[in-house]
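Subject: sequence -> structure tokens, single chain

Hey, anyone have a minute? Need the predicted structure for the following. Not urgent.
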Amino acid sequence: MRLAGSGNAADDSEDCDTGRLGYDHTFVVILALDTTTRAGSVAVARDDEVLSLVPGDAARTHGERLPGEIDRALIDAGLSPRDLDLLVVASGPGAFTGLRIGLAAIQGLAMVIGAPVIGVSALDAVAETLWASFHPPGPSRLVVWMDAQRGEVFEGRYVASPADGTWVAECEPSVAPPDAALAPLGDDPSRPTLFSGDGADRYRGAIQAWSASARLVETPRALAPALARIGRRGAARGLAGPPHALQPLYVRRPDAELERLRRASSA
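Reply:
Had a minute. Here:
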């Protein structure tokens, strides 16, 4: 098991460092960006205090809105880009186009201001947000489903860990049709299962058919504040790194790669 947000750092190595990683981790100015959902969000935080939050406009593409939303978040916080100590981005899973736009925006800003970056799983950010909203009584499990389209969901599974003050991931993120994702869970009335995410909203019927005791929790509207908190903790453990080391968390192979494999197998 791993703590939510403990993986998916900016580099494959856990000791990656840059010239600006010597800052005081107890007082860090952070910009966090999420483009994994249609709306997305941008937040600026000092330590764990959110200074500004800009929820995205789902009616417009991320390409149309960035970097305008980043500028607005900084203005609302009364800061300039040079005030930032750390950049955090949701590295996936999500739509490939949105992921690429978010990663490119953070990489470009990092190169301009020389700040370290860290990628965080959007699934972990959902779990982090829900823990901040309530502390589940007794043993419980959280399943985060993000809509992966094509009749599938991106899934993250977590168990409550009051000692750690967070949800602990049971396994690596995966992608599967809802029924296939539900099959290995097992329905244990003594261990309530909570579901959240836009995938859980979309496939509510499948969840309710699987277990009458399953509880659907409202999907968080903005993940950027949770990304900032997870990113700060990761940076304190030395997991932030240079912009070129950021890696997307696709979970499912990009369409272009699948098409190349299909052509190769049929040749």
